[in-house]
Structure formats: structure tokens, C-alpha cells
Write a sequence for this structure.
């Protein structure tokens, strides 16, 4: 089976720019209703469906996992089940990651960490604005 997984992220809150491809026909697409790291029910449901030989397509590393540790847990679980994960933006799959050069792997990890930080910052800013707080440096008094 071919599965897709979507999750709202900082630059794609409606998941409109994820899994856009003409060459892949998905048997089922799992889409989270929120971008938070907790209670990712659709991801848990996807893991329940998986069988050996299945394929999962996600737009990028960060859509699937919120930390390097979480990414490793997902990759290990899928490897044990015989499932391959395809990361569309990074143009790599879970099998190819083992054959990457160290430099290439570090570049991908750095990019992943930047996505995590960006997403967390924007969620925090959104919560602060909802609570009535102002964002940024305080304005200087105009003494003119």
C-alpha cells in the first residue's frame, strides 16, 4: 500500500503544498488537524495500518517528526516493519539515508533542526498574540 502523511506546519497551515505529485496514486492519506507535536492521532493510526512492503510519502522530514530522536524512532520502527519512507522535498528515502555521505547527512540534519526551531517559534508567537502580548522590541518614546 502507498500512504501519504500531512501535517500543518509553519509555512503550510492548510497542508495545501504537501504531497502534490502526478506520478503517485495514494491508497490513503492521513492528515493531522493541528501542527503540534503531541496527540498526533493520524500518525498513530498510520502506524497501525503499516505492513511489510508498504510505502509512506511525506513532504519533508519535519512533517513526520518533531526532533531528531523522534525521526530516528520512526525510521527504526519502519525499518523493523519493512516499510520505506519517501521524503519528497529532500529527494531521499529511508533506505538512501544509510548510504549518504556524512556531509550530506549533516546538511539534512541541520535543515531539519532549523525547521523545528522555526515552527516552535511561530507557534509560541501565535500563542502570545492570542493572549494579548505584543511581539518584538518595545517601542522607544518619541522625544521630539
Amino acid at each position: 500500500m502507498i500512504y501519504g502523511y500531512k501535517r500543518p506546519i509553519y509555512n503550510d497551515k492548510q497542508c495545501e503544498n504537501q504531497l502534490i505529485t502526478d506520478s503517485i496514486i495514494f491508497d490513503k492519506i492521513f492528515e493531522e488537524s493541528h501542527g503540534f507535536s503531541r496527540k498526533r492521532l493520524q500518525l498513530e493510526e498510520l502506524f497501525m495500518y503499516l505492513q511489510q512492503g508498504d510505502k509512506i510519502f511525506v513532504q519533508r522530514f519535519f512533517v513526520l517528526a518533531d526532533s531528531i530522536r523522534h525521526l530516528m524512532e520512526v525510521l527504526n520502527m519502519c525499518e523493523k516493519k519493512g516499510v520505506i519512507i519517501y521524503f519528497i522535498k529532500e529527494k531521499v528515502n529511508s533506505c538512501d539515508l544509510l548510504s549518504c555521505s556524512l556531509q550530506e547527512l549533516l546538511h539534512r540534519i541541520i535543515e531539519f533542526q532549523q525547521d523545528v526551531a522555526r515552527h516552535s517559534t511561530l507557534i509560541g508567537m501565535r500563542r502570545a498574540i492570542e493572549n494579548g502580548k505584543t511581539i518584538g522590541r518595545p517601542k522607544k518614546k518619541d522625544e521630539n
Notes: The CA atoms of residues 124 and 130 lie 10 Å apart. The helical segments are 41-49, 61-64, 68-81, 102-130. The chain has a mean pLDDT of 85. The chain has one domain: 2-130.
